[in-house]
């Protein structure tokens, strides 16, 4: 029988969830409904428990908050914008840039309140709470609002005392770790003890731990809280403190941990549960886990209903829930003769509980976590206790902490070695296609059924078989039949992803930041292109084509070459002295990618899809004019990809007499006035045209001249409709856009 707290929490959470999909009713009508229910309950004598469930459900609906408005959206990719506001979080340094969350309160003299992520050149001292006036440009890769700053002026100081105290203690803690250990190991230990949000790790290291199934070690949660409370209670017992004093000491350190870590959802959940357990000791009551877990959730959701949609909150509760409801029956169901069955159940239980959320949110399916957790779990708590102890000694007597740091380094180096080795396993981790929400719901229903069967020992084989099918289903979600071409919205740049009927995957260009200031990574590639490919379940690209070496075409490709296995690469052979191109060459050599220079007449082996390179014949034109031109044909549907081809090269291409006629034209050079001549357009004679272009870009693309020429066609621009996906069965084609499209011409179902 579920406790009342569990039921009330479930009702309240359901109300919050429903409130995101049901138009929010006016508080007045909800109050009338509360009163009406109370009157009806008195008249017909409804049980108070059922009435409370309905009230909590309605209260959740009332508390549910609508998605944040987007007043700054109209300023995305304008020339310049001046904003005023306050630094809302701790600034972090990455290469030559410092970045931080920023709350805008004024934009171009308009009162606006919205959160953005700010990037500016490192060197200027920026602290949490600083009130700044910033001038720069807004961009929106994926759902993030990024602000690249050209001018910064400090107006004053602000911020709340809680965050200032948290940042002060976390900075002191990190300073001690850096003096005890080398920088990499200090960051790793800080992440294990306080979470990666307090002690930032290199993104590539975090990705390795995610692939190895050890990312939970870098999120401070129940493990750290339970160890801290356990150590405090043990020391208090040795000192023979009375129970109330032992609880008080443990509470102080528990609250201190919350302060230092900044009070995220997972640590708050663990801290609240820890306090419930401590208070239970005062009253000599046996701890009821489900009630404690539900009560901690209810307190958090009353404080902020949006925690329900926080992935850290969800993963933390599921992992903790699995330790008490999944691990015990799993352990009991395993034969006693199996050595380490408790450890195996402890390794696999949280993985089974959290995997679907990881798959749904990150498209990443990992079985490596079973191996890595089986190796790491027996000694990770010892590492945490030793790490905490060494850090505390460092505050008191640094020389002794430095001596102990040698042993600590060995443990951290071993942990890192395990993560690297398991992340490198070929079948350890894979990206899968975006799974529907219905799979998530079915998975947890099947998991609950499995737990029930394991507990009752009835129908176990059938339940296990059904669970295995549902668990591995994402690995078998295949691509669509036919040819699928997606023009990805990368802002002011080009990128197209092609899936052939035979399963081959091709990427033409990758967008990228035009500024190309050599920071070592490209935000468009990291925040737009890679997430897109992962949602398509891309673990390997058969071919990458770089039409020409400008940064807005190859900058994003660099992130792909860095993170995705690429078998073959074709470029035009042109050399450009730029940071983006130098990284491009380095990554090709480092990953030993087979590289071919594309020239006129080259054909590609793509099965049923005919693919031929039509340009360039040489490199005697401009950088844009030397762009690779590729024509794809699948039955009656054909595509012409033109890179940034200019009108002079178009004329030379027309002179060669090549067959340019195509159903869909990727318009050259983002629709500039120097591309897509009348003669060229007549030769291609497309039915649809796609322009990959940034919203309100500083070049004025597309030009009015180009738009006038393309007006009679089915014209689609990524700045307006987002990603454009065209599917063909060889007889006809259909078009889908990321955002609603006004033109009826943009939907042509297959014949």
Automatic annotation (TrEMBL):
One of its GO terms (biological process) is establishment of competence for transformation. GO terms for cellular component: plasma membrane. Residues 492-695 form the Metallo-beta-lactamase domain. It is found in: Cell membrane. Keywords: Cell membrane, Membrane, Transmembrane, Transmembrane helix. It comes from the Bacteria. InterPro entries: ComA-like_MBL (IPR035681), ComEC_N (IPR004477), Competence_ComEC/Rec2 (IPR004797), Competence_DNA_uptake (IPR052159), DUF4131 (IPR025405), Metallo-B-lactamas (IPR001279), RibonucZ/Hydroxyglut_hydro (IPR036866). The keyword Cytoplasm does not apply. Its main location: membrane. The chain crosses the membrane at residues 29-62, 214-236, 242-268, 289-307, 313-331, 343-362, 374-400, 431-451, 463-479. It is a multi-pass membrane protein. NCBIfam families: ComEC_N-term, ComEC_Rec2. This is DNA internalization-related competence protein ComEC/Rec2.
